Amino acid sequence: MSRPVVEFWFEFASTYSYLSVMRIERAAAAADVDIEWKPFLLGPVFLALGWNDSPFNIYPPKGRYMWRDLERLAEKEGLPFRRPSRFPRNGLLAARVALVGVEEGWVAPFARAVMTANFAEDREIGEEAVIVEILGTLGLPGAEVITRAQADANKLALRCQTERAAELGLFGAPSFRVGEELFWGNDRLEDALAWARRA
Amino acid sequence: MSRPVVEFWFEFASTYSYLSVMRIERAAAAADVDIEWKPFLLGPVFLALGWNDSPFNIYPPKGRYMWRDLERLAEKEGLPFRRPSRFPRNGLLAARVALVGVEEGWVAPFARAVMTANFAEDREIGEEAVIVEILGTLGLPGAEVITRAQADANKLALRCQTERAAELGLFGAPSFRVGEELFWGNDRLEDALAWARRA
């Protein structure tokens, strides 16, 4: 029998994706579930809903609440958190690199390092130099990986994955899929893992 | 020492308020926390954010997800659920009656009965006859309560409570407040209770 699988759809600019990226491998291991990492871009998904910015910026009461909620949740999880001086940051390059990481098996530590840079260290993850440095700390050849990430085929793969997200009915991140079943938000990670085990 | 208190802000048309109304008294009793019931109307709060309808209607992917999520959560909680044939229903009269119930000490069973009518029995809770019947099943004098609920002072009290919700930064329901701390969504009930105990 094959092991249960949860698809993990996340975006590097997304605050609640930070929480899930940091804890999903531990939670999945404890539940004996495999994770398929699905980096994508929220920008096009939000545009299709009529938002040209993060809803947390468009609707200030939601934004004020979210930053406080995130601070509380990070404390509860024992995660470092510093409110980024820019939000949302551009997650395009990081998402392209993450797709290479999915193929090569290092997406999880890469994603944790980028999320930590964005949400705990207030670093500019949209800049190539920052991504190259992160790759270096993971023992990966930064320049080579960037070249692979920026190749046309990989750019297209990310575009297709983002279109697929909208087709699947995703409207935010993180989202989890088990078969046809969709779970939205860091709060639903445990439910998604349980669903995969029972499916 | 006084017992810890959580303010519970809810709206009868709100799907996730259904889940919280049905479980909050049991959860609060287990945590040794008192609940202050704060019925209010989401309509004016949403209008201030630019929404003239429920966001679940305005953004179809969010709506599709919400109905499935609610179905799953109701099953998990062992709650009956039938998708209402009209959404959102008008919760104005029920909210006015609930304010009377807060004064007279029967708001909790009344709220559970109205929520069950809306989200498990597909009944038209905006109609006076339905509310009168629900009051009757609770052993309350329906016509008298309606008269009190529709008195100018009570109407004004609900209007003020709704304006207060927006002032406090609420943007959805259910919401919970502990001192100045805001928690949004049925998923945060346990966190709000824990915060009240530690505060």
From TrEMBL, chains A, B:
Keywords: Isomerase
Pfam families found in the cross-reference section: DSBA
Catalytic activity: 2-hydroxychromene-2-carboxylate = (3E)-4-(2-hydroxyphenyl)-2-oxobut-3-enoate
InterPro entries per UniProt: DSBA-like_thioredoxin_dom, GST_Kappa/NadH, HCCAis_GSTk, NahD-like, Thioredoxin-like_sf
Source organism superkingdom: Bacteria
Enzyme class name: isomerase
GO biological process, one term: glutathione metabolic process
Assigned EC number: 5.99.1.4
Gene Ontology MF terms: 2-hydroxychromene-2-carboxylate isomerase activity; glutathione peroxidase activity; glutathione transferase activity
Active site: S14
Domain DSBA-like thioredoxin positions: 5-191
Family: Belongs to the GST superfamily. NadH family.
Protein name: 2-hydroxychromene-2-carboxylate isomerase
Source organism of the structure: Thauera phenylacetica B4P
